Amino acid sequence: WLYLRRQKERQLRARRLGHLRALALGQGDFQLRDTGGTPRSKSAFLGRWVLLYFGFTHCPDVCPEELEKLGRAVELLEREPGLPPVQPLFVTVDPERDDAAALARYLRDFHPRLVGLTGTPEQVRAAAAAFRVYVSAGPRDADGDYVVDHSVITFLVDPDGLLRDFYGRSRTAEEVARSVKGHMETYEPLPP
What we know:
Blueprint: H1 2-23, E1 31-34, E2 39-41, E3 49-55, H2 62-78, E4 86-92, H3 100-107, E5 115-118, H4 121-130, E6 135-137, E7 148-150, E8 153-157, E9 163-168, H5 173-186
Parallel strand pairs: 3-4, 4-5
Antiparallel strand pairs: 1-2, 1-5, 3-8, 6-7, 8-9
Helix pairs in contact: 2-5
């Protein structure tokens, strides 16, 4: 019975990964800069598990909540003996206001290893498009301020650079950590 159950779980996991690969989410590379001005690409994170979130520093509530949850999930995973480290990443969807200094100030309140990435509007659009993240800047108010509407999804990228899973707003940090751990435990690297 246990063998059949594990076999069914493997088949379901393989089918889900097949669907994700067919969507071609996150399979392109991106060229952005971190808060220190260092150029970073998706390929620079190969060999590591990555939890990636797209948002912006002027977000009133959703982005801070999601970054808190992402940080908590990473902390839970760090407590698990034998698991590889997870790299948390934040990519801005508002490069006009989110330069390296703004990202550094904003992200220091979250997980200490959270890396913030920004770039030109074209580079940021390309990165968001690779993950099919919806982004739309709202109208400016009298002070010139605006809100950016965007997809609220955290992506899990495996050490091969492939999307393994994604987590919406309704998932808790514990659920995200449990899912990531499951992916790590069943991960098989792509053949060279």
